[in-house]
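User: Structure please.
Assistant: Input sequence and predicted structure:
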Amino acid sequence: MRKSVQTLAEFEEEATHFTKSLSPQKEGASLITLSGELGAGKTAFTKVVAETLGVTEIVNSPTFVIEKIYMLSDRQLFKRLIHIDAYRLEKGSELAPLGFDESMKDAENLILLEWPEKVADALPVPAHKISITTGSDGSRIISYD
């Protein structure tokens, strides 16, 4: 499915709608990959997901720390939102020090991973693949796979 959004408000509405459609996997974490060029909106999408799930902390790109973990309230379907930015990684084995394999075993984890192409060799099949592209007019096309 592809969705074209023209404004930031439409982008946020689409990310909110997506978040509300999520449910935990029967086995293991729910992995969502986010692809797109620099500035396409991967982190902006993650911010809306986090806000929709009740995260009150500032959510920004974990480019330099690679991973940020946000605890969610008991009212949520997931217990943790794990945000990973693989931009600075060169291969999937670099996810190991983060405890990625263990995180993937826990069905209470929702994992949003930016730049999945950098670590594709270590990724299981994601629950959702999201690709965000920018139009010359500033619009965004959000593709779900």
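The helical segments are 8-20, 42-52, 100-105.
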